[in-house]
């Protein structure tokens, strides 16, 4: 049986549809900056930013009038919602290590300085006559004895205040009794200045430029900054869906033509691919556009993390879209058995494409094609594999839409750095449903010629 040639209706010509598509693109481009500018410069946001910014110590706080400038408001929001600028634990550890090294160096300097002072006194006394000669040797001994003591003193001074290591005191020496020495007056020598030792100063870690923020006021600021963002995402999703419908109308003459395959039948694999594409693309575009107009540094606008589960979701969806026509191609090359075809609807058999159901006109495609069997024998029955995949797709898309509404409705642009994940459980269930959908297509339910 020769397959009939089925063509879609003539495309719609004229300027109305291109103009409508242009307006949709303009709406997609203009809505994000309008919403962002309103949220940044409205009175409630400016008052909250000014109130939270008063605790800053690294510069004068901004005023509500200064925040009328959008760039100033972006900078203030980045300062309040960004990472804290205080000294981290690693920085503090580095400072403490540097202080310890400086203290050790100071202690070593003290050791050598005290020993040299004692030796200098002994040298001065050595030229003072017999008494100097008698005392010069004990001074050298005293210098040698003080060497370990000054090390103890230096270590005590370098340690944190609180515990001062007590240096051991040497037992008083014995003065030789009944010794009378007559000496000439020693020449005047410069007085030895007393050695003054002060503990090394250790600078405390720098204080954070801003104190802890009021959590309630900060939550109010985030709510004020994210007002209308959920509705903006929903609007973007609807605009993208409408844009797809207008392109389909332009090319096929039908708004739902995007979902119709080459057999003039509504395709479930096309339907679920369009659903997930519009959902994820609108979410990414909304987050990126809000960050582009809301961040002080717009170069980071596209730095949005998408979990591997989202990539796996798109992979599963596209796999079904590509694998379904491959399976159909094998069935299109088969012809129904004449005895079996006599029991089927003659019109369906005449319009069929191999053993697959096909419709003679593009306009005959209907929504019930998403649930009925694809072969001539199963055309009048509900395909449970299709029904299961349809509801899993619908429920999953609805649940993820709720997550996106919550995300955009509560998180400002400064913190929109990641899209919500689906969860491995749902991803596994959806993957099994797609696998069952494709496996069901591989089974021939219509008896073919030669069987």
UniProtKB/TrEMBL annotation:
<protein>
    <submittedName>
        <fullName>Uncharacterized protein</fullName>
    </submittedName>
</protein>
<keyword id="KW-1133">Transmembrane helix</keyword>
<feature type="transmembrane region" description="Helical">
    <location>
        <begin position="389"/>
        <end position="409"/>
    </location>
</feature>
<feature type="transmembrane region" description="Helical">
    <location>
        <begin position="421"/>
        <end position="439"/>
    </location>
</feature>
<keyword id="KW-0472">Membrane</keyword>
<feature type="transmembrane region" description="Helical">
    <location>
        <begin position="230"/>
        <end position="247"/>
    </location>
</feature>
<feature type="region of interest" description="Disordered">
    <location>
        <begin position="168"/>
        <end position="213"/>
    </location>
</feature>
<feature type="transmembrane region" description="Helical">
    <location>
        <begin position="268"/>
        <end position="288"/>
    </location>
</feature>
<feature type="compositionally biased region" description="Pro residues">
    <location>
        <begin position="184"/>
        <end position="193"/>
    </location>
</feature>
<keyword id="KW-0812">Transmembrane</keyword>
<feature type="transmembrane region" description="Helical">
    <location>
        <begin position="308"/>
        <end position="327"/>
    </location>
</feature>
């Amino acid at each position: 049986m020769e397959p009939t040639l089925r063509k879609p209706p003539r495309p719609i010509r004229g300027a109305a549809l291109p103009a409508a598509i242009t307006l949709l693109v303009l709406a997609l481009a203009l809505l994000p900056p309008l919403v962002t500018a309103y949220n940044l410069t409205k009175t409630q946001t400016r008052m909250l930013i000014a109130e939270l910014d008063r605790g800053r110590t690294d510069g004068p706080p901004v005023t509500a009038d200064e925040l009328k400038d959008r760039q100033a408001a972006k900078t203030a929001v980045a300062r309040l919602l960004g990472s804290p600028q205080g000294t981290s634990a690693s920085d503090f550890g580095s400072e403490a290590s540097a202080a310890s090294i400086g203290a050790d160096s100071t202690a070593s300097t003290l050791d050598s300085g005290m020993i040299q002072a004692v030796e200098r006194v002994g040298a001065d006394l050595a030229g003072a006559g017999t008494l100097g000669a008698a005392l010069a040797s004990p001074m050298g001994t005293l210098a040698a004895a003080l060497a370990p003591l000054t090390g103890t003193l230096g270590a005590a001074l370098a340690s944190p205040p609180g515990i001062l290591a007590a240096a051991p005191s040497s037992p008083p020496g014995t003065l030789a009794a009944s010794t009378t020495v007559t000496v000439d007056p020693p020449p005047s020598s410069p007085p030895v200045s007393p050695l003054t030792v002060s503990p090394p100063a250790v600078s405390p870690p720098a204080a954070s430029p801003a104190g802890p923020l009021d959590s309630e006021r900060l939550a109010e600021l985030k709510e004020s900054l994210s007002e209308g963002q959920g509705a903006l995402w929903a609007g973007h999703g609807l605009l993208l869906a409408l844009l797809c419908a207008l392109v389909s109308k332009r090319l096929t003459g039908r708004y739902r033509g995007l979902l119709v395959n080459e057999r003039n039948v509504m395709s479930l694999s096309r339907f679920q691919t369009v659903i997930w594409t519009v959902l994820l693309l609108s979410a990414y575009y909304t987050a990126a556009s809000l960050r582009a107009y809301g961040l002080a540094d717009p170069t980071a606008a596209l730095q949005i993390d998408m979990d591997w589960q989202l990539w796996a979701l798109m992979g599963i969806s596209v796999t079904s879209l590509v694998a379904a026509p491959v399976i159909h191609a094998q069935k299109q090359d088969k012809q129904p058995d004449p005895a079996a075809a006599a029991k089927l609807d003659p019109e369906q058999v005449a319009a069929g494409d191999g053993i697959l159901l096909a419709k003679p006109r593009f306009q005959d495609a209907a929504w019930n094609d998403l649930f009925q069997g694809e072969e001539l024998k199963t055309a009048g029955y509900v395909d449970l594999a299709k029904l299961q995949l349809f509801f899993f797709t619908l429920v999953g898309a609805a649940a993820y839409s709720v997550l996106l509404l919550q995300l955009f409705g509560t998180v400002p642009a400064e913190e929109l750095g990641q899209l919500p994940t689906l969860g491995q459980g749902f991803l596994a269930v959806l993957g099994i449903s797609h696998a069952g959908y494709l496996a069901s297509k591989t089974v021939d339910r219509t008896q073919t010629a030669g069987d």
